[in-house]
Queue: 2 jobs
Job 1
Amino acid sequence: PELSEEPPAEMVKMTKSKTFQAYLPNCHRTYSCIHCRAHLANHDELISKAMQFFFFMQSFQGSQGRAYLFNSVVNVGCGPAEERVLLTGLHAVADIYCENCKTTLGWKYEHAFESSQKYKEGKFIIELAHMIKDNGWE
């Protein structure tokens, strides 16, 4: 018998463009791309809400308004890192985009130059303008 390299059917779906798309479990609240509805993140991966009080009520801002900070995301591609001066100082960031529709969603923090911002390294910013809440929000 041949060994299959395909992921389990409940985790991915073949789309019309013949790319694979990860699906998060339906039992969890999720965030999806507002443009194509590809899953982006599980609510459990959201860290900005819980950490805002601890970090002096810091609100995350994207280039198009409010944004959320996530530990991990799915169905997202990453561009090259570049240094940018953001509201919280100099960071090396890489733009992230929806793998399904190619819309730029936000960025990934690759490196923080200030010690107070190190907690952001490896985390992802997604702008609210590009997300929609799915599965169990009321």
Note: The radius of gyration is 16 Å.
Job 2
Amino acid sequence: DCRQYTNRSCEECLKNVTCLWCASSRRCMEYPVRRILPPADLCELSSARWGVCWVNFEALIIAMSVVGGALLIMLGVCCCCCCCKKKSKKQVSRGAFLSTRPDKDDERAAREREKRRVRQEERRAEMKSRHDEIRRKYGTV
């Protein structure tokens, strides 16, 4: 029975996990299992202790709310980032760019592609002239 620890210490009361310590009245009582939070007529939240003596229900509720809110915000940001990435990949794959001015990396890549294309055309023309020369030499033209 939890009542036997009334007017003793919080630590003694909370050794039994079914007990609730009320610091303002120094009472030890059965935790009201049917309710998540102890009702105000039993003990106010700022004085109620359960599990450990150094955390009251009020601080626990505030801390859990802050942590839960931060997790929800992080989840929302992650979802937005993922959706934006997928949307931008779809637009780029369709040929529609997100910005009208390409960045330096895109410009550099485009210049390199153009240089490679020009070199390939030059090599192709050189090979064609060599082949034509060989055909003329052996009279196959």
Note: DSSP finds three helices and four strands in the chain.
